[in-house]
């Protein structure tokens, strides 16, 4: 089939034709002109329209099989869309081709300008790609060089230990403690200007002093070295949150997306300390919500022995076994049906915001004071976790169970 000239064409009518006998292309074209003649008046007569170039060459593809002919018809039009639609409807009045009965059905009217625009877009993409390949690298190098110079100028030596730090340490209420200078530079690259580096495994006094005045997030590598520094930080500094790079990765090698994801997923330091069984080298200041140390008897009070004989503990044991190693939690109703499954890091917020009546919380983590207080407010009956952290107060109306209470080593 010849290629349709799209120079002045606005639309192309696409149609199918079937006949009950053998016909050829000229027969179909003749039928189109013959059976539409005079149907729409002089203004839309096909012969006149073709003479003036408002209708292009009609293209027909036809094949014969089993004594019947089937094919396609394409009619290029530079008329407006209403006139083109009228012409398309007129084509469907054709009921014979030569001596044979026929049926012509219009499938669609293609807007050629859309096709042209699509071609322009695709070509523009190709041209742009070429421009980027040929031109951009120099621009990128210049931009990165300028940005690097700015970052190097922004980094400062902070405090008596002259630690690498961003420019906003003093102005910010919160700081991010990282391992080295390269980590500070990377965070500066992505607009984080309140980071400060430990620069070694021994935590400097500057960090310890800052941690007493500001909210501290420890952001460490996802390797053994990162864990060692984290342990030291948690013991000697007042760390509030912990963020870690993905396993096996260092902070300085992370992408922007990985950095912000790690910081979003930070967890309370108290939870990490309980999980790692870390105790402070120095006596920590009590939290505002905690009572004085005379409440120590409450800490030493053992968890009440479970006395349920109705199969609840077996149900709890099954759920806890399913959750083991997943860092997830189940919220259950009074009939031990799962209402919701959440990540442990989101448990406190999910429980606090739950509109359902939650009777039991079972999770793969440490039972902390904050979680106990939220559970008590929500009138939760059972809080089941891997182990119990350092609690200063335990409400009488909630039962705390651990893996040991369920008979799980």
**Mind telling me the CATH class of the largest domain?**
Alpha Beta
Strand neighbour order, sheet with most strands: 2-3-1-5-4
Q: Uncertain segments of ≥5 residues (pLDDT<50)?
A: 283-310
Helices, by number, come to: 13
CATH topology of the largest domain: Dna Topoisomerase Vi A Subunit, Chain: A, domain 2
Mean pLDDT: 84
Estimated share of beta-strand residues: 15-25%
**Structural class based on helices, strands and sheet pairing:** alpha/beta
Helix content: 25-40%
Could you walk me through the main structural features you see in this protein, from its secondary elements to its overall organization?
By secondary structure, this protein is an alpha/beta fold. It folds into three domains: 101 residues, 2-Layer Sandwich (Alpha-Beta Plaits); 121 residues, 3-Layer(aba) Sandwich (Dna Topoisomerase Vi A Subunit, Chain: A, domain 2), CATH 3.40.1360.10; 109 residues, 3-Layer(aba) Sandwich (Cytidine Deaminase, domain 2), CATH 3.40.140.20. It has 13 helices and 19 strands. The strands form five sheets. The chain has a five-stranded antiparallel beta sheet with strand order 2-3-1-5-4. A five-stranded mixed beta sheet has the order 9-8-10-11-12, sandwiched between helices. Strands 14-13-15-17-19 form a five-stranded mixed beta sheet, sandwiched between helices. It is elongated. The termini are far apart.
Key traits:
five-stranded antiparallel β-sheet; alpha/beta; Alpha-Beta Plaits; Cytidine Deaminase, domain 2; 37% helix; 409 residues
What is the element layout, followed by pairings?
Elements: E1 11-19, H1 25-36, H2 46-51, E2 59-65, E3 68-77, H3 81-91, E4 96-97, E5 100-111, H4 112-154, E6 156-158, E7 163-165, E8 174-178, H5 181-189, E9 195-197, H6 205-211, E10 215-220, H7 224-236, E11 241-244, H8 256-264, E12 267-268, H9 269-276, H10 296-300, H11 312-323, E13 328-332, E14 338-343, H12 347-353, E15 360-363, E16 366-367, H13 369-377, E17 382-385, E18 387-388, E19 399-402
Parallel strand pairs: 8-9, 8-10, 10-11, 15-17, 16-18, 17-19
Antiparallel strand pairs: 1-3, 1-5, 2-3, 4-5, 6-7, 11-12, 13-14, 13-15
């Amino acid at each position: 089939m010849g290629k349709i000239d799209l120079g002045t064409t606005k639309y192309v009518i696409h149609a199918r034709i079937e006949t009950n006998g053998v016909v050829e292309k000229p027969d179909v074209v003749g039928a189109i002109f013959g059976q539409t003649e005079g149907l729409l008046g002089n203004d839309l007569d096909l012969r006149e329209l073709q003479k003036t170039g408002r209708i292009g060459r009609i293209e027909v593809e036809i094949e014969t099989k089993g004594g019947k002919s089937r094919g396609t018809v394409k009619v290029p039009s530079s008329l407006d869309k209403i006139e083109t639609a009228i012409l398309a409807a007129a084509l469907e009045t054709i009921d014979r081709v030569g001596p044979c009965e026929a049926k012509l059905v219009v499938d669609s009217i293609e807007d050629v300008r859309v096709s042209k625009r699509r071609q322009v877009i695709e070509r523009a993409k190709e041209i742009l790609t070429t421009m980027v390949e040929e031109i951009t690298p120099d621009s990128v190098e210049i931009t990165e060089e300028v940005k690097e110079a700015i970052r190097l100028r922004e980094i400062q030596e902070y405090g008596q230990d002259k630690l690498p730090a961003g420019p906003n340490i003093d102005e910010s209420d919160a700081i991010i403690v990282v391992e080295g200078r390269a980590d500070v530079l990377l965070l500066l690259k992505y607009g984080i200007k309140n980071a400060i580096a430990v620069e070694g495994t021994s935590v400097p006094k500057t960090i310890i002093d800052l941690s007493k005045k500001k909210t501290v997030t420890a952001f460490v590598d996802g390797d053994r070295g990162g864990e060692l520094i984290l342990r030291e930080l948690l013991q000697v500094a007042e760390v509030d949150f912990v963020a870690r790079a993905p396993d096996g990765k260092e902070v300085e090698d992370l992408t922007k997306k990985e950095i912000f994801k790690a910081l979003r997923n930070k967890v309370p330091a108290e939870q990490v300390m309980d999980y790692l069984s870390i105790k402070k080298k120095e006596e920590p200041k009590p939290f505002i919500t905690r009572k004085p140390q005379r409440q120590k008897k409450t800490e030493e009070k053992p968890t009440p022995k479970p006395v349920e004989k109705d199969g609840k503990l077996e149900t709890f044991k099954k759920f806890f076994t399913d959750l083991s190693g997943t860092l997830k939690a189940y919220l259950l109703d009074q009939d031990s049906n799962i209402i919701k499954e959440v990540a442990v890091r989101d448990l406190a917020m999910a429980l606090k915001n739950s509109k359902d009546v939650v009777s039991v919380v079972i999770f793969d983590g440490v039972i902390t004071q904050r979680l106990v207080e939220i559970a008590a407010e929500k009138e939760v009956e059972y809080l089941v976790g891997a182990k119990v952290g350092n609690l200063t107060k335990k409400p009488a109306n909630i039962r705390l169970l651990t893996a040991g209470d369920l008979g799980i080593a």
